[in-house]
Amino acid sequence: SDYIPEFTGEGKTKVCVHHLLTHTSGLEGEVIWQNGQLKKEQGEYPPHEPNQDPDQHKYLYGGYDAPLSNEPGTVMSYCGYGYELLGEIIRRVSGQA
Fold it and tell me: Are the beta carbons of 5 and 17 closer than 8 angstroms?
């Protein structure tokens, strides 16, 4: 949440870059997908930034407030969304796409 303030919800302040890299963040792809589908149906997507891919923005936004399935650092579960978050952190910190 230091780099992505929109990444909110119970336990998410405990998620570190290390957790994203090792797939131990507590994120699960199915939960992210379901949350994103709900947002898509409700048309909740705000506009993307000029240096951000629109499809990636929708995918990321769809999971920002999705609940964690596990406490960060406790269970390893492959989730590509964590790597998308890492890319977004790099984009924001560097100011480049």
Answer: no
d(CA 79, CA 15): 14
What are the CA-CA distances from residue 81 to residues 18, 87 (Å)? 14, 10
54: its two tokens: 């629109």
Is 60 buried (19+), middle (13-18) or exposed (0-12) by CB count in 10 A? buried
Cα–Cα dist 14/79, whole Å: 17
pLDDT, one tens digit per residue, over 3-47 is 999 999 999 999 999 999 999 999 999 999 999 999 989 987 888
**Total-model pTM:** 0.88
Secondary structure (3-state) at 71: coil
Answer left, alpha or beta for residue 23, where phi above 0 means left and psi between -120 and 50 means alpha.
left
